[in-house]
Amino acid sequence: MSAGRLLSVLLLLQSRGRMSARAIAEELGVSVRTAYRDVERLQGAGVPVCAEPGRGGGYRLLDGYRTRLTGMSEGEARALLFAGLPGAAADLGLAAEVAAARLKLLAALPAGLREEAARTAAVFHVDAPGWYREPDRTPHLPVFVDATLTRRVVETRYRRWRAPQEVSRRLRPYGLVLKSGVWYVVAATEGGTAATYRVARVLDAVPAEERFEPPRDFDLAAYWAAYLEGFRARRHTGTATIRLSPRGRRRLPDNVAPEVVRAVDATATAVGGDGWVEAVVPTESTAHACGELLRLGADVEVVAPAELRRAMAETVGTLARAYGLPGSA
């Protein structure tokens, strides 16, 4: 049973008045039987839901009954968006607001729902950052949060990969994205199109007095989906033919990008009778592919291109010499 869905039923009845079980079911995307059960659970938790039979009937709250979701500050209301992401809320400078908003939300619920909400919170935890790396330090993230919501220009110094590495940018932030524990700000310069900036690479951020209006047709989710698609297209510019042992193929998902795994699944053909397969996989660069494939050790062999095969052999030879193996001089 979802405590969140029960709260949704309660708020629907509060905001819309009388609703049939079918209307509740359609609004929440559940079956009519589930809607009936949800209403019964609300009644059992002490919420005064009245049933009115007949044509035009349905469920409604007892006259004068309202949930007590009151007394929230602007910051606390904003923080509710991140109530399930405590790490993200802390990054955004909203940890205290999330805690206060959560307490007020729980206090406003009837006892039965409050207990169920507490049980739900106790068995779910979100940890966004990926394995094997420290989370980014983002001291300037709260500046972008405020600037995004108040539509204020931000003067920044930014460190990028290509020269000159340190640049100044006058950004108009349209939105923020948390991707695998890494924060990005989607912003435009004056007269420019939207671009993506990693917040951890912002060296300085100072809000300006100038305000801006984002394009009316800008959609952050659509922008990010297109950005990811373009990134994948730009990232893999070549291909390589490789051979994998059965163990190498099993280890593949833990050591290479998902696109490489999908390519192996799509192109693998058996070579010999010992379970090895040959496949064509996308590559980003010779250096990157060499480093990625070497994680598989002796369970992979590069067949082509010659440049990548040579890079693999040279790296293995250097390692052999470093460990003083016979015949590696």
Write the layout of secondary structure elements.
Elements: H1 3-16, H2 21-28, H3 32-44, E1 49-52, E2 58-61, H4 74-79, H5 86-91, H6 95-108, H7 111-122, H8 141-150, E3 152-159, E4 166-179, E5 182-188, E6 194-198, E7 202-211, H9 220-235, E8 238-244, H10 246-251, H11 258-267, E9 269-270, E10 277-283, H12 286-293, E11 300-304, H13 306-322
Helix pairs in contact: 1-3, 1-7, 2-3, 12-13
Radius of gyration: 28 Å
Q: How much strand content do the residues show?
A: 15-25%
Envelope shape: extended
Run of helices and strands: HHHEEHHHHHEEEEEHEHHEEHEH
Protein structure class:
alpha+beta
| Spatial strand sequence of the major β-sheet | 6-5-4-3-7
User: What oligomerization state is this entry in?
Assistant: single chain
Average pLDDT reading? 84
The major sheet is characterized as: 5 strands, antiparallel
Could you name the ranges where pLDDT drops below 50 across 5 or more consecutive residues? none
**Percent helix range:** 40-55%
Task: Count up the helices.
Answer: 13
Distance between the termini: 67 Å
How many E strands? 11
